[in-house]
Design brief:
heterodimer; A: 113 residues; mainly beta; Immunoglobulin-like; six-stranded mixed β-sheet; four-stranded antiparallel β-sheet; 12 strands; 0% helix; globular; B: 115 residues; seven-stranded mixed β-sheet
Chain lengths: 113, 115
C-alpha cells in the first residue's frame, strides 16, 4: 500500500544554516512526489514536484528536494534558512488513477534568528 | 497554476446547523477536491468532485453529512451538515490543473468552529 512518512514533527534551525526536512515514501510503480508549505492561517502553497528526470528538483523560495529511489526518500533542503521559512511543511505522494494524493503528517520548521 | 478563492474564510456555527463553503477557480478545471484538516493534523481527502458527475467520497465520509455540488468547471460547494464540535476543522478545496499528474493547487481554506 502507498504511504508517505515525515519522521520529524519539528525541525529547529538557526538562520543562515542549511535545513533538511525529511520524507520517505512507499508506492508500487513510479512515485509522484510533492512538497507543500502552509503558513499560519493560510492554505497550502505548492513548493516543488518530482515526476521524472533529474533527482535534484528546484522549487520556490530557494528550496530544493532530492529524490533517492534506493532509499525511497524525497528530502526537502535549503542551503541557507530564513526566519520567514518558519512554517508547516507537507510531503505528498500521488497514488491512484483518480489523481489522488496523500499527505504526510507534516513537519513544523522553526528558524531562530 | 490556478487562483482559488473560498468563502467564507472562517465561521463560528452552532451545533446542529449546516454551513455551505464555496470554492471558486479562475480557470476551468476538470477535477476538484475537498479536504479536511483537523486541528494540528494533516490533510484528509473528503471527496473528489468532477463536473457532470456525482462526487466520489473517501472512506469515512458520506454524502448525507458532506453534500457536494459541482455545477460548472469553475465552482464547487461543500456543505457540512448537522454540525457537531468534532467538525471543527479547516476545509480546503483544491484543483488539478493538468500541468502534471497529481499536481494540485489549494484554496486558502475555511476555518470552521462549531460550538
Amino acid at each position: 500500500a502507498q504511504s508517505v512518512a515525515q519522521p520529524e514533527d519539528q525541525v529547529n534551525v538557526a538562520e543562515g544554516n542549511p535545513l533538511t526536512v525529511k520524507c520517505t515514501y512507499s508506492v508500487s510503480g513510479n512515485p509522484y512526489l510533492f512538497w507543500y508549505v502552509q503558513y499560519p492561517n493560510r492554505g497550502l502553497q505548492f513548493l516543488l514536484k518530482y515526476i521524472t528526470g533529474d533527482n535534484l528538483v528546484k522549487g520556490s523560495y530557494g528550496f530544493e528536494a532530492e529524490f533517492n529511489k534506493s532509499q525511497t526518500s524525497f528530502h526537502l533542503k535549503k542551503p541557507s534558512a530564513l526566519v520567514s521559512d518558519s512554517a508547516l511543511y507537507f510531503c505528498a505522494l500521488g497514488y491512484s488513477s483518480a489523481s489522488k494524493i496523500i499527505f504526510g503528517s507534516g513537519t513544523r520548521l522553526s528558524i531562530r534568528p | 497554476s490556478a487562483v482559488i478563492s473560498q468563502k467564507p474564510s472562517r465561521d463560528i456555527c452552532q451545533r446542529g446547523t449546516s454551513l455551505t463553503i464555496q470554492c471558486q477557480v479562475d480557470s476551468q478545471v476538470t477535477m476538484m477536491f475537498w479536504y479536511r484538516q483537523q486541528p494540528g493534523q494533516s490533510l484528509t481527502l473528503i471527496a473528489t468532485a468532477n463536473q457532470g458527475s456525482e462526487a466520489t467520497y473517501e472512506s469515512g465520509f458520506v454524502i448525507d453529512k458532506f453534500p457536494i455540488s459541482r455545477p460548472n468547471l469553475t465552482f464547487s460547494t461543500l456543505t457540512v451538515s448537522n454540525m457537531s464540535p468534532e467538525d471543527s476543522s479547516i476545509y480546503l478545496c483544491s484543483v488539478e490543473t493538468g500541468g502534471s499528474p497529481y499536481e494540485q493547487y489549494f484554496g486558502p481554506g475555511t476555518r470552521l468552529t462549531v460550538t
